UniProtKB/TrEMBL annotation:
<feature type="domain" description="DUF7282">
    <location>
        <begin position="230"/>
        <end position="344"/>
    </location>
</feature>
<dbReference type="InterPro" id="IPR055706">
    <property type="entry name" value="Slg1/2_DUF7282"/>
</dbReference>
<feature type="compositionally biased region" description="Polar residues">
    <location>
        <begin position="354"/>
        <end position="374"/>
    </location>
</feature>
<feature type="region of interest" description="Disordered">
    <location>
        <begin position="338"/>
        <end position="427"/>
    </location>
</feature>
<dbReference type="Pfam" id="PF23951">
    <property type="entry name" value="DUF7282"/>
</dbReference>
<protein>
    <submittedName>
        <fullName>BGTF surface domain-containing protein</fullName>
    </submittedName>
</protein>
């Protein structure tokens, strides 16, 4: 079995697979108490034993199940043959001899559940609540541009699925407060985008994660740098149908360098967010500054006359390899839309110039491609989704403490996929872990963020 870690004040969830135990909790066996009290009665009667004991101290802490139930630190949910025992590590009471103690960071525990002479177990460790941001320099600062889609990322020890409210705030002359919410991924990382378009370049600010119990709210210094700029111009192209096709970009000027990409007309399709990658026909890396008459060989040639759409992209990770799908973003204009320039590509004669276009993400209508003599027109691209999805504990729907059907809110709105397996297939009479059709074959440790009051 694998060791698991749980941040202090998060909830430990024991996931037990036992039809008989789940049915006993559901029926109440004549008891009018809560699910947790029914579980305690089964434990006190000897039908089941739940032992959580510290393993890294000779003077070990041991969970006081009765005191924890009385203190509101334990809840029980059932869903079919699966039982979830939720232990709030902040409210849980432990005993060290006669002394009542709390769980603390670096404590290591073994959980053992026994019934009908069959046991399953798993280990876990308590770790500090911590979070940190990914910084961009040796001074531990986060540098962002005065533009949209500025990604802030980091990592944390709290349970995956935990919602984090991240605040960017400046008390300087150009003061501002921007608050966004994201959730922790299964690997403990998080990221989200901020819009600093209206923030004056050179403004310093602080990033914090309030109301999560992190030291100093994980405060990290940031600085808003001037926005990146780009311009691009392309003429109508006359390309051969049976030879290597090359598009010549008349001029391009990228403040930070990056890629010049060539797309077909479907780049403007607002119904499919994967169109930028699907419409790509060729690309070339260029240095910062003005470049004239840049030739780009097409990887996917035109079979008939069509539209050439030239779009400059950032080299976000600096590896000189274009990756539209996972990280490299287009240069954007003042309205937040990607900067682009379109022209005609034909196998016959074609004379004219294209026009630089900032694709307007607020306009949901895509007009037809203008001819070179019609001047500049705006195109629409879909707004990026910055919402967060609900991360519910798989299978956590069941009865709440009052015997009513509940949902993930009964155990906090977070989940993780941490697992530690101990499989048994022993059969035996009467109520027990290994009795009946579905016996306890797996004990899985999950963790959930306990709902906090702001």
């Amino acid at each position: 079995m694998d060791d698991q870690t749980i941040a202090i004040d998060d909830a430990l969830i024991l996931r037990l697979s036992s039809t008989e135990l789940s049915n006993a909790i559901a029926s109440g066996n004549g008891s009018s108490g809560t699910n947790a009290e029914r579980l305690l009665e089964l434990e006190q009667s000897g039908d089941i034993d739940i032992d959580i004991t510290q393993t890294n101290d000779d003077d070990a802490k041991r969970l006081d199940l009765g005191a924890t139930v009385e203190n509101g630190g334990l809840k029980v949910l059932h869903a079919g043959s699966v039982l979830y025992i939720v232990i709030d590590t902040e409210r849980a009471e432990f005993k060290r001899g006669e002394q009542t103690v709390d769980a603390a960071p670096d404590d290591q525990f073994e959980v053992t559940v026994t019934g009908n002479e069959t046991s399953v177990s798993a280990d876990f460790e308590i770790e500090p609540r911590a979070a940190s941001f990914d910084t961009t320099d040796d001074q531990g600062t986060i540098a962002v541009k005065a533009e949209t889609n500025q990604t802030v990322s980091g990592e944390t020890t709290v349970a995956p699925g935990t919602y984090l409210t991240i605040r960017a705030q400046s008390d300087k002359r150009s003061s501002f407060v921007i608050t966004r919410t994201t959730s922790v991924e299964s690997d403990g990382t998080f990221d989200l985008d901020f819009d600093f378009t209206n923030v004056t370049k050179g403004t310093s600010f602080d990033l914090t994660i309030p109301n999560q119990g992190f030291e100093d709210n994980a405060s990290t210094a940031g600085i808003v740098q001037r926005p990146s700029t780009a311009s691009v111009s392309v003429n109508n192209q006359n390309i051969g149908a049976n030879e290597t096709q090359t598009i010549v970009v008349r001029s391009v000027n990228l403040s930070e360098g990056g890629f010049i990409t060539v797309h077909d007309r479907s780049f403007f399709d607002t119904e499919n967010e994967t169109k930028p990658a699907q419409s790509l026909r060729g690309a070339k890396y260029i240095r910062p500054g003005l470049q004239n008459n840049t030739s780009i060989e097409l990887d996917i040639p035109y079979k008939r006359s069509g539209t050439v759409v030239v779009v400059p992209y950032h080299d976000t990770n600096g590896n000189h390899e274009l990756d539209i799908t996972t990280g490299d973003e287009p240069y954007v204009g003042a309205d937040g839309g990607p900067i682009a320039n379109s022209a005609n590509a034909s196998v016959g004669d074609g004379i004219g110039q294209g026009t630089t276009t900032e694709l307007d993400p607020q306009n949901e209508t895509v007009p037809s491609v203008p001819s070179p003599v019609n001047g500049t027109d705006d195109y629409a691209l879909p707004n990026g989704s910055d919402g967060t999805g609900t991360h519910a504990l798989d299978g956590a729907t069941g009865s709440n403490e009052d015997g009513e059907r509940g949902d993930e809110s009964n155990i906090g709105n977070k989940k993780t996929t941490l697992k530690a397996d101990g499989t048994t297939e022993t059969d035996g009479p009467g109520f027990g872990l290994a009795a009946g059709v579905v016996a306890i074959g797996v004990i899985t440790l999950l963790s959930a963020h306990r709902t906090r009051e702001n």
